[in-house]
Sequence to fold (190 residues):
Amino acid sequence: MNAKLTLPLVSEDTADEKALEMLSNTRKKMGRIPNMYGEMANVPGALSTYLHGYDWFRKESGFTPAEQEVVFLIISRENACHYCVAAHSMIAEKVSKVPPQTIQAIREGGTIDDPKLRALAEFVKEMVQTRGNPSQGSLQTFTSAGYSQQQALQVVLAIAVKTISNYTNHLFDTPVDAAFASYVLPAETK
Fold:
């Protein structure tokens, strides 16, 4: 069995001044504080780095909202993060309007029908699996699909952000929030 942290879930009532503003802003923006944020708030620098990088990726990556979810879902699935796979599956469906076949293929480790999204997913998967050492062919397929070299670097940002969240969730075995609990993968596909 993997080691688990037993630090408390930080709330607005228990947060130090460094974490309080981030948690309060999250509540204002989302209407709630996700469990993962309450865990990260034990080290405000982790929460700050996550939120800052996540925001930069969302606003500046040049990827569409659907492409962003493909990136986050692939990383989270490759890192076996039950929490983030559930969260990004819900966002993919309800917010970013990722094609249902694409969501299902990522969640089940299948093949994405859309050729551009498939090229993106395969590049991200190779980046995670090779720890940032993709083949020239993989990079060529990615750029030939219409993505820029700058977007390859944006994938690095997404991997950094998701590594913070995925590893936090591993260390805490984060309980999945009710908002996306219905998107948890069945045990056999985790």
